[in-house]
Amino acid sequence: MAEAKNNLDAYKISHDEQVIDTTRKMRVAIIGTGWIAESHIASYLKQPDVEIVAGCDLIPGKAKAFFERYGVEGVKTDYASHKEMLADKSLNLDCVSVCTYNRQHAPCAIDALKAGINVLLEKPMCVTLEEAVEIRKAEKESGKVLSIGFQPRFDNNMKMIKKIVESGVLGKIYYIQTGGGRRRGIPTPFGTTFIEDATAGLGALGDIGCYSLDMLLNAVGYPKPLTVTGYKSNFFGTDPNYVGYGAHHDYAEKFGVDDFAAGFIRLEGDIILDFRIAWARSINTPGDALILGTKGGLRIPSTDCWNGSIGGPLVIYHEVAGVQTETIIPVQSTNYGLFDMKIRTFLDASKNGTAAPVPSSQILYNQAILDGINKSNAVGHEIELEIPEI
Question: Which fold has domain 156-333+369-384?
């Protein structure tokens, strides 16, 4: 039963099709009550086996107002820090969602795991490779479930990309190209935590670049990254005349992360990854995602704004009976909420003690690439990645 629930190809969020054991309620807390926490609480409130019992935020009174806004009563929020909340044994917590800004992901996740609590950690996993390694160590020592917030994985088109690669129709994969982002889309409507280095650490790289990387890395089996040549810039973010700022010209002075980044990464298995991502750029799209193999190639149409899916039908370029041809794979419908799938599969894994839906062992490599681009850009040349076995 538990094994079937973790089969993402067969699993559906529909409560009409899934029998959820409501005799055991999962006691949940939320760390950080900003924008992304709204999606977490909205999904938790749909789950019949969840009790939201606590929450905390660095800003006094913010957590209390957050839960009141969603009509959730009896939630304990009078904590000076996440550590104080995690130490409250009266809560008897099963799970926690970490919804803080990027630079607090690692300490909050590590502290929760050390407290013996299952963790759903929002993306990006953290800021640096070193932080990701420490999170993995805490997870392994705790024996608890740690899942990373990559809901696009549950989209049927993403699953189809992986199925095509695994079918062997493309042959041996040797080159993958991915990227995307937005023509104008620096996320300042949510304040400055996304754009200040002290809170975000990563800009477009961490916000949407991690998704773009996961789409193809997951499809080809997450090979270990070996070397990175990286570049990043922030020409748009630091421009006070950037259109998206409106009256907030002071945002340009606070902008301390990347709004564009690119990387050339060598992966195990003699695979090359060509990557670029942007919050702002002077072009509509940097190109479709591509997977090239010895028997065929796959084109994945880009979207105007990265949204966790694809911009049109997939196209396989291959040879049939000596004739070069194209096979079109129609866009697959996804009749369930991706965020709900993220929450539900995490709850099931936590309740049943089964594998994390989006394992940190994979996202560690994702994080290594993000961090590698940062570090390569800083020194101005290719660097080798040293990722320890954990």
Answer: Dihydrodipicolinate Reductase; domain 2 (3.30.360)
DSSP 349: H
Which pTM was predicted? 0.93
Measured CA to CA in angstroms, residue 152 lies from 8, 19, 321, 322, 356 at distances of 12, 24, 36, 36, 15
Q: How far is CA 310 from CA 205, 245, 330, in A?
A: 19, 28, 11
Q: How far apart are CA 357 and CA 158, in angstroms?
A: 14
Look up tokens 């608890």; give the residue.
Answer: 144
- Give the whole-angstrom CA distance, residue 66 versus residue 287: 40
What is the residue whose two structure tokens read 């340009």? 252
Instruction: Using CB atoms within 10 Å of the CB of residue 143, give its burial: 0 to 12 exposed, 13 to 18 middle, 19+ buried.
Output: exposed
Residue-range domain boundaries for the chain: 2-152+338-358, 156-333+369-384
Query: Which segments of 148-240 does DSSP mark as H helices, in order?
Result: 156-167, 204, 210-219
pLDDT tens for each residue of the chain, 390 residues long: 333 333 343 334 444 467 888 889 999 999 999 999 999 999 999 999 999 999 999 999 999 999 999 999 999 999 999 999 999 999 999 999 999 999 999 999 999 999 999 999 999 999 999 999 999 999 999 999 999 999 999 999 999 999 999 999 999 999 999 988 999 999 988 789 999 999 999 999 999 999 999 999 999 999 999 999 999 999 999 999 898 776 566 899 999 999 999 999 999 999 999 999 999 999 988 899 999 999 999 999 998 876 678 999 999 999 999 999 999 999 999 999 999 999 999 999 999 999 999 999 999 999 999 999 999 999 999 999 999 999
Amino acid identity at 33: T
